[in-house]
Each structure stands twice: as structure tokens, then as C-alpha cells.
Amino acid sequence: MLRGSIVALVTPMHANGDVDWVALEKLVRWHLDNGTHGIVPMGTTGESATLDTDEHLKVIQRTIEIVAKQVPVIAGTGSNSTREAIHQTQAAAQFGCDACLIVTPYYNKPTQEGLYQHYKAISAECDVPVVLYNVPPRTACDMKAETVGRIAALPGVIGIKEACGDPERIAQIKAVTPQGFIMLSGEDAQTLRMMELGATGTISVTANVLPKKMAQFCDAFLGGNTAAAAELDRQLQPIHQILFVETSPAPTKWVLLEMGMIERGIRLPLVELSEGNRPELLRRLRAIGALN
């Protein structure tokens, strides 16, 4: 079962924008050593929109090789082209991923029926567990709970990463999906409330920089220690908020640069975190003990 703190992994790059394969291995092993419960390569945080298909699939394949079944790997294989999503999902399945995370088609703005037909086509062509991904602030497309219920009945569809901005959507999804349908938070700041409503964890941006603390937070809640989880959530909230002070993953990549985990590399049209936002980010990270 997919549960706990699942990192939406950044894709480390050199200053010229090429993928840094050495740093990728370093990051993945760091997560394995610090209790991260699962890894998502090539999600939004991995800059999937600006890697070409060959790079996209190579990052997924290399991540799967490094993880070597120690934790689940949920490959980001979505696209606004149904054919491309099928191609990437089939390839990731051949590499041996545990599931695929498939975002709603962006830019196209499909109807709810279009969304159903998109996932129906993927389900029919791909033999791998599928986790839906709803993030309307990024895609201009909101997959309603009733549509999730329809799609959840398709073969291989096992769960959803929900990032619509309303944590109460989890309760709506739970009411229309089968028992055991996996619900994961896609909004770090809302994860505690989502888990109270039935989510089993989070696909997290914050886990990129605080893997151990995010794992402890999820372990505490899922283990029944809600008081400890609430206290950890209180500590983490300032970090959740400031990691989105500019378009993600720019703040997260800048923190990892400061931590010595990656080089200075991000692809246009995204740019490095502006200097004006750096002091407050450093202050909050030092307050939680993440930086000296």
C-alpha cells in the first residue's frame, strides 16, 4: 500500500541544465537513508514539463535502479497527450515501477467526460497500477469527485494524489470510491487534515529538504500518535508555506543547493529563487534545524 511520506523528487541538474546523474543517485540514497516511504520521479517538482521524453524516461529508469525495490517508486508519466501518457506509462512499467502517477491533461482543459476517456484509454493499454493526480492550479482542469469515482472503477486505478486546494475533497472522494482506494495529499500544508479525513500520506515537496521530519510526521499520525503528528505539523507549516513563495521547485532547489546536495541548475522558463526571498527561507530552515 502507498502510504507515508512519498517525496516528489526534484531532478538535479548542472548549471547548463543537463541532468546531473551523480546528484540524482546521491539524492535517492539520502531519501532511503532518512526514512522516506516512497519516491516519485518526474512529477511536477521534477520539472517533467521541460524534460524531453528520452530524459524523462531515463530519470525514471535510473531512479528505479537505485531504489532497487527498497521503497515504492511511483513514476510520473502523465501528459496532456493521451498517446504520450500511454507511451510513458508503458515504458515505466517495463522498467519495473510500482505504480504510475498520471496528472490530468494540462492546457487542453478537457471536460469531465474527456478526463474519464483519457484514463480509460490509459487503463486499457497499460498494465501497471495508476494513481490519478489532480492539481487544477497547475493544469486549469479540476477532476471532480464524481469523476474520480467513475475512473476508480477502471482496471488498475488504485488511488489519487489530490491537490485541488480543498482538503475536504478527500471526504467527497472517499464517499464515491471503493474501500481501499488510496488517497494521498498533494498539498503539504493540508496533509494533516487530509489524513484526518482518510488520506494515508502525502506526495510531498517538503520531503525534498526535510525527509526525516516528514517521515516522522506521517509515521506518528499513521501510528495513532496524533498529538505528536500535530506538533510536527506545527513545526513544518512555515516550511510548507515558504517552499511555494515562488514557483516550485525553485525554492526547493535553492535550499538543496545551500545544503550541498545539488548544483545550481533549473530549466527555463523557471529561474533560480530570487535573492529577496532567500533570507526568510534561510531563517525558517535554521529555526527548524535544517541548516546551520
Low-confidence parts: none
Q: Which overall shape is indicated by the principal axes computed on the Cα atoms?
A: globular
CATH topology value: TIM Barrel
CATH superfamily: Aldolase class I
CATH class: Alpha Beta
How would you describe what is shown here?
The chain is built from 12 helices and 8 strands. It has one domain: TIM Barrel (Alpha-Beta Barrel). Strand 3 (74-76), helix 3 (82-95) and strand 4 form a beta-alpha-beta unit. The chain is globular, with a radius of gyration of 18 Å. 45% of the residues lie in helices and 12% in strands. The protein is an alpha/beta fold and 292 residues long.
Compact overview of the structure:
The protein is α/β, with parallel strands linked by helices. 45% of the residues lie in helices and 12% in strands. The strands form two sheets. The chain has a five-stranded parallel β-sheet with strand order 3-4-5-6-7. Strands 2-1-8 form a three-stranded parallel β-sheet.
Topology:
Layout: E1 4-8, H1 21-33, E2 38-40, H2 53-67, E3 74-76, H3 82-95, E4 99-103, H4 112-125, E5 130-134, H5 136-139, H6 145-152, E6 157-162, H7 169-176, E7 182-185, H8 191-196, E8 201-204, H9 211-222, H10 226-242, H11 250-258, H12 278-287
Parallel strand pairs: 1-2, 1-8, 3-4, 4-5, 5-6, 6-7
